[in-house]
Design a protein that fits this description.
- The structure is a homodimer.
- Chain A is mostly helical.
- A two-stranded antiparallel sheet of chain A has the order 1-2.
- The first copy, chain A, is elongated and about 55 Å long.
- Chains A and B meet through helix 1, helix 2 and helix 5 of A and helix 1, helix 2 and helix 5 of B.
- Chain A binds a DNA duplex (30 and 30 nucleotides) through helix 4.
Chain lengths: ~100, ~100
DNA sequence: CCAAGTGCTTCGGAAATCGAAGCACAGGGA
DNA sequence: TCCCTGTGCTTCGATTTCCGAAGCACTTGG
């Protein structure tokens, strides 16, 4: 349940998702997340670091921990579902347009 | 991405998760979600109904649609991960306590 | 020395969330 | 018939969270 609460906070899911491509810097990560507010990004990052999902490397770049990669793996089905969901929605739209 | 945004809204993940056990009424659902605010629950439910993940039956009870069940299936790996995450954290705690 | 890029902080306003109260309605007794 | 209880749902003021622009300290390269 705590997990659903953690990921139910805005941006947390997205951040983990964007970190899949390896270490990335603060500002670059911010860009990837639709230029989310830097203040919130900082907050979310410390939360994720506390949760041991993300670690900050000595060159102050961020990456998923082993645990974090587990999340990402667990998230992939959701990603796949999102794709077919997008199809369903666009199909429904063209349905409505008729 | 839109999916990560939808589920990045508070309670949406939790609601879908709690709806797995079949149809349930408004107040009962609210109880299951740590007595979340009824105003927000209403808002979330209309959002989820709009997204075609949840449907409201004639007796005004709520349940997952076919699409919604897809989400839940896609969410199960995350549930399994959450379990082992809890173990890791409690293990780390007793580690710290030493 | 300067310009540009970085990680990160501060802060005022906007938006989301909460929570308690209450409305309208539907049974189910007495 | 009149309560009493439980339901789905709404309203609204207070609190929390989020946003976004500005800027600070620091590093790198010219």
């Amino acid at each position: 349940m705590a997990a659903l609460d953690l990921f139910g906070r805005r941006w947390n899911l997205r951040i983990v998702w964007e970190l899949q491509h390896g270490p990335i810097g603060f500002r670059a990560l911010q860009e990837r997340c639709d230029n989310m507010s830097s203040s919130v990004l900082r907050q979310r990052l410390t939360e994720l670091v506390d949760a041991a999902l993300v670690e900050q490397h000595p060159d102050s770049t961020y990456a998923l921990t082993e645990l974090g990669h587990g999340v990402h793996r667990a998230l992939r089905p959701l990603g796949r579902w999102a794709a077919e969901w997008a199809e369903t929605l666009s199909a429904a739209d063209s349905e409505d347009a008729r």
